[in-house]
């Protein structure tokens, strides 16, 4: 009886899995999800962290772009987190401004956007300081 119950459970599980669409399929009728994270460091260690961007939505339709920064530098830093959209001639769109200490993060900042194939957007971290800003770009999110 126990073997039969396990076999039935396996069949039901296999049938359920085959009905669930792949999360990254991303056709016009299925919601897709793509993510890219980038470690951002300079040789001095004064600016260190990870920036991540994720894209969720239907290719050829509206979706959301989430951007987050995780600060690992020993000193607090004032920074701006932004999204730069590929082909956009305007400056990056700021999604968060503030000061972070070691171990803190911006949380995921969400914005609505049209989702196309290829490189949709990439995150930008701008550390603000009196002697000039330090800018680092993260990896582009490649939607396929």
Distance between the termini: 46 Å
Strand content: over 45%
Tally of individual helices: 1
Q: Quick one: how many beta strands?
A: 10
What is the 3D shape? elongated
CATH topology: Immunoglobulin-like
Named at the architecture level, the CATH assignment is Sandwich
Series of H and E elements: HEEEEEEEEEE
Protein name: Peptidase inhibitor family I36
Signal peptide: 1-25
Keywords: Signal
Question: What is the gist of this entry?
Answer:
The protein has 144 residues and is mainly β.
How would you sum up this structure, described in words?
This is Peptidase inhibitor family I36. Keywords: Signal. This protein is mainly β. It has a single domain, classed as Immunoglobulin-like (Sandwich), CATH 2.60.40. Helices cover 12% and strands 49% of the residues. It contains one helix and ten strands. Strands 1-2-3-6 form a four-stranded antiparallel beta sheet, with no helix packed on it. A four-stranded antiparallel beta sheet has the order 5-4-8-9, with no helix packed on it. Strand 2 and strand 3 form a beta hairpin. The N and C termini lie far apart (46 Å). 26% of the residues are buried. The N terminus is likely disordered.
